[in-house]
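Reading a protein record of the kind used here takes little practice once its layout is understood. The reader may check this reading against the record printed directly beneath this paragraph.
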Amino acid sequence: DRVELVDQSPIGRSPRSNPVTYIKAFDTIRQLFADTHQARIRGCKPGYFSFNVPGGRCETCQGEGQVRIELQFLADLFLECEACHGTRYKQDAREIHYRGYSIDQVLGMTVDEAAVFFDDVPALNRRLSVLSEIGLGYLALGQPSNTLSGGEAQRIKLAAHLGSRTRERILYLF
């Protein structure tokens, strides 16, 4: 029915992009956190658990987990954000837990660990299982996409296609 080119180009240039955002699994994770009792009491919506928009993200580093020091004659220096300690979230967001884990702890899980942790969430588990089956079980869910190799990026693109449950017959070109 169609042909898809799956190349080794980066899946994102920003440290905010990561494997779970690319495979569209982060929306489900954020919704799970927003559905917790703690989040409902505080009035936190799913967007609160995104590090791309104001809310629960650390405003000091804008959700990147690091701050850039511009050096005039040398390459820029990146340091871990002192406000969030590299977690990308402010303290209020880190205090909300889903099954005993904060949002930054979940993003620190490997794909294999998260597949077991979210075993009872079929839509999420299906997408994570595809990543694991194609050999990316060792990646952290929140690993910045700009730290991935070309082969890892290519396999994440393939996982996004395979996890979408399309009924089309697709020819993949690598």
Summary: The mean pLDDT is 90. The chain has eight helices and six strands.
